[in-house]
Amino acid sequence: MRSAGRARERGSLRVRGADFAWGERTYVMGIVNVTPDSFSGDGEIAVEAATAYALAQHTAGADVIDVGGESTRPGHETVASDVEIARVVPVVRALRSRLPEIPISIDTYKAEVARAAHAAGADIVNSVWGAPADLLDVAAELEMPIVAMHNRHRTGDEGDVVAAVVAFLTECARCAQARGIPDERILLDPGIGFGKTADENLDVLRRLGEVTAIGLPTLLGVSRKSTIGKLTGRQPRDRVYGSVAAAALAVQSGIDVVRVHDVAAARDAMAVADAIVRDWRPQAWIG
Hints:
Elements: H1 4-10, E1 12-15, E2 18-21, E3 27-33, H2 47-59, E4 64-68, H3 81-98, E5 104-107, H4 111-120, E6 124-127, H5 133-142, E7 146-149, H6 161-178, E8 186-189, H7 198-206, H8 208-212, E9 219-220, H9 226-232, H10 240-251, E10 257-260, H11 263-277
Parallel strand pairs: 3-4, 3-10, 4-5, 5-6, 6-7, 7-8, 9-10
Antiparallel strand pairs: 1-2
C-alpha cells in the first residue's frame, strides 16, 4: 500500500484476524440493530434473523460488525441491562461461532452489558455516552478497544458545538489513557445526530478536522441520520446516497472508521475516497 509509511506513524490495532492500520484507509463498521424500534427500520429482534443480517454485512465488506440491543433514536426508552444482554449475547455468540476472525463491537454504554458481550465473543465496546468510569474499568480490564462518542441531553445549551465536542472527547481520551488504555485502542466519535440540531450536525461535519486533530483514531456515524433526511427529503431506508456522500467527504478530514447501514455502498465510496485522499490502492491493483 502506498500509504503504509504514514499508517505506521499512527500505529495500528490488531483485533482477531484484522489489522486496523490507522491512516492507511477508512474502515467500515456494519450496523446490526437487535431492537424492535430502530429509527432506520432495520432492527431484527430474532437471533436467527439478526445473525443472518450480520453475516450479510460481513459478506458486503464490513471490517467490523457492531451489534446493539438498545435503540438510540429520538424519544427512545432506556432498556434494562438484563434485557439488552438477552438481546445481544445470543447474536454475538452465534456470529462468533460462524465468523471466528471477524472483529465484533458491542454498542452499549453499560459496563455489565459490555462484560457479558465480551464473554460471548465481542472485542470492542462502542459507547454513545462518552466514556463512563465503570465502562472504562471494564475496557481496561478486558483489554477492549473503546469508542467514546460525544452526546448531550439537550441541543443548543453550549456555544461553539465543535469546541464542545473536542473538549468532551479530549476528556474522554484523558480518562481512558489514565486507566492505561493505549492510544490505538481509543476511538473518538463526534456524535452526529446526538444532542445536536441539524445545523450543528453540519457544523461538526464541516469541521471534522478539529476532531481528527486530537490525534487519536476516529469514528463517524452519519448513516441515515435525520440531517441527511432533512437535506434530501428521503426516508431512512432511502438515504443511502446522502449518507455515502457525507462519509466520503469525511475521509478528507482523516476519519478512520465509518459506521454504516449500507455496507456495500460505503465500501465502494471509501475505496474511491481513500485512493484520492490517502493514495491507497487495493492489493490486486495494477496501475
